[in-house]
Amino acid sequence: MSRIGRAIGVLAMLAGVLGPASAARADAAACAVKYKVSPYTGGFTAEITVTNVGDQDIRGWTFRFPLETTATVVEFWNAQLLAPTVVVITQDKGWNANVAPGGSISLGLRAVGTAGADPAWFTVNDITCSRVS
């Protein structure tokens, strides 16, 4: 077989292996986030709703977003808190790991420090979510 034939064969194999898996992951993790802050003296709380706007179930999730450098999350509900500062990282609790298309997860936090501006981005499984007002 020629080098061109082998290259085409390798590309076809990679497309079959990488293409569908990557596309499925992007669809499965399509999300929209609503974020509402309520300040109080010395800190703030935030209500967060993450909605699956994709066409496949999200099966297990890690949720990330940036936080003001002066703030530290001291409590997070409906998710396991993995990192409380700079970039907040949370993970499903098992019982809420699967989110069907159109379904949502209600999360919340309490933090000390300044809320500042709303986070610039949110991700679920490293896929950027859209914002909902």
From TrEMBL:
Per its UniProt entry, which superkingdom is the organism in? Bacteria
On whether Signal is a keyword of this UniProt record, the answer is yes
Residues in domain CBM2?
Answer: 24-132
Record's signal peptide? 1-23
Name the keywords, alphabetized. Answer: Carbohydrate metabolism, Glycosidase, Hydrolase, Polysaccharide degradation, Signal
SUPFAM superfamilies for this protein? Carbohydrate-binding domain
Name of the molecule in the record: Cellulose binding domain-containing protein
Q: Which organism is it from?
A: Actinoplanes sichuanensis
